[in-house]
Design goal:
By secondary structure, the chain is an alpha/beta fold. Helices cover about 50% and strands about 15% of the residues. The strands form three sheets. Strands 1-12-11-7-10 form a five-stranded mixed beta sheet, with helices on both faces. Helix 7 packs antiparallel against helix 14 and helix 13 packs across helix 18. The longest helix is centred in the middle third of the chain and has 22 residues. The chain starts with a helix and ends in an 8-residue tail after the last helix.
């Protein structure tokens, strides 16, 4: 493709945001006004200057991932090795490390790609295991052939209990089937560059490994080796994925709220939450291929913005509850609540303009108007007509929506979409004056679980568990 045609294609594939559905001009009183957005301009300029300064100081490492050519070359080189050795890759991870890999696979591989083992040409079958439910994990172990399966163990800290426990089970099975010499090639570990238990295990046993760059937490790791390696093994063009992220990054370097899609979309969601009482955000992709994006976004938004304290230590209990909906299915499941229940929601539609193959509905039953009108339309056309109808119906009821327009689902557009949401999240965190990166609300439950499992150093937490259990009243357990 010539440079000119490539530029034209990139322009045609630009992901765009439309926030009209949240404005008073469409939803009436209670909607966001243009004046309210314009009034944010001085604060946005200040935040933009600070974020740019933090980028120059390498304090936003997730934002530099799309530009890290050495990192992606290492990922692709190892992925090429693995594709030539196995037919299945099982990812053992949790949280963002799993959700990122899963969303890329679901979006960019055919729906039934995972049904049968793969190969180097079509990409390996990918199985992403997140939860530690033994019913599911046991079924995965029964399904795959250990002789033709590789396992990617992903943990930044190197001591994530849910991940390490599954690794120990897999290691034991591989040793029994393959022996101490041959099993080594079946394990690829993705962890911290230098520290942590898994890095020590890599050094001791010589497993092949990849590093998650310093400062990149799980909920911002989708464009690191945690997400890119499984994607590349599955046959996804990760260079094109990162090119999409770079294209979005370039569009989001403007300080103007009306030129920067991450700022415009973020500002509307911030105002909807902080000024208009929309404490719930519904993320609603209409295309099945983007359902994994909704699952991933839930974690990104919840962990980044759900904070008890702001940066100054003031108690704020900030954050929106995230609800996931998918396609016309949830028009028949949740729309009644969204349309006529509490007006406490802002809905983000993900609309794919070309959602898939052109499956035209044939003409038939011309004497039955409730059937005949469908003839000549395609399923993709009907999908988007339903989305637009839902958007208009909600606006007529004063319900706020925004729409992210995705021209088609491919690696370039998905890269844009993910980077847009990451930048938007960091921007909204700045507007709310909360730190999007630490997740202290998750740590206490881990300490309590460690204590109950008998980990040394957590004896005090075990005592806390006993005190809590003793407070339970048996009258209320029936």
């Amino acid at each position: 493709m010539s440079d000119y045609r490539r530029r034209k294609w990139r322009d045609a594939m630009a992901v765009r945001v439309d926030v009209n559905g949240a404005l008073d001009s469409l939803v009436g009183p209670g909607g966001i006004t243009a004046a309210e957005l314009e009034a944010l301009a001085p604060r946005v300029a200040e935040i933009h200057s600070r974020l740019e300064e933090e980028r120059r100081a390498k304090l936003l490492p997730f934002a530099e991932l799309p530009y890290d050519k050495r990192h992606v070359r290492e990922v692709v080189a190892l992925a090429d090795e693995v594709k030539n050795e196995f037919d299945t890759l099982v990812v053992l991870a949790i949280g963002g490390s799993a959700l990122g890999a899963d969303l890329l696979y679901r979006a960019l591989r055919p729906p039934f790609h995972r049904v049968r083992p793969g190969n180097a040409e079509r990409g390996l079958r990918l199985i992403v295991n997140d939860n530690i439910d033994p019913w599911t994990f046991g079924a995965i172990l029964d399904e795959v052939d250990p002789r033709t399966t590789a396992f990617n163990v992903v943990s930044k800290s190197g001591q994530t209990a849910e991940t390490v426990s599954r690794f120990l089970i897999v290691r034991d099975r591989l040793l029994k089937v393959l022996g101490a010499v041959d099993y080594n090639r079946h394990v690829i570990i993705t962890t911290d560059t230098e520290g942590g238990e898994l890095r020590q295990i890599v050094n001791d046993e010589g497993f092949r490994s990849l590093a998650i760059p310093p400062g990149v937490g799980g909920h911002f790791s989708v464009l690191s080796s945690a997400g890119l390696f499984p994607a590349a093994v599955a046959g996804i063009d990760v260079y094109e994925l990162l090119a999409g992220a770079v294209a979005m990054d370039e569009r989001c370097r403007s300080a103007s709220i009306f030129e920067n899609p991450a700022y415009l979309h973020g500002a509307v969601h911030h105002l909807a939450h902080s000024e208009k009482g929309r404490s719930v955000q519904v993320i609603w992709p209409y295309a099945d291929s983007l359902a994994g994006v909704a699952d991933w976004f839930k974690e990104l938004w919840a962990e980044s913005l759900g904070k008890r304290y702001d940066r100054s230590g003031r108690e704020v209990f900030h954050g929106q509850t995230i609800v996931r909906a998918v396609g016309v299915s949830d028009q028949h499941a949740q729309l009644q609540l969204f349309a006529e229940g509490p007006n406490d929601k802002i809905i983000t539609f993900l609309r794919v303009e070309e959602p898939g193959p052109s499956l035209e509905v044939p003409q038939g039953y011309s004497d039955l108007e409730g059937v005949a009108y469908l003839g000549g339309h395609s399923l993709g056309e009907l999908l988007n007509l339903e989305q637009r109808g839902t958007e208009i119906s909600l606006a007529r009821r004063g319900r706020m929506t925004t729409t992210v327009h995705v021209p088609a689902v491919n690696a370039f557009t998905v890269g844009q979409l993910l980077h847009l949401f990451e930048l938007q999240t960091v921007f909204v965190a700045a507007l709310a004056d909360v730190d999007p990166f630490p997740i202290p609300g998750v740590e206490e439950s881990k300490r309590l679980a460690y204590a109950m499992a008998g980990r040394r150093g957590y004896e005090e937490s075990k005592a806390d568990v006993q005190v809590w259990l003793q407070k339970k009243d048996p009258r209320f357990v029936i």
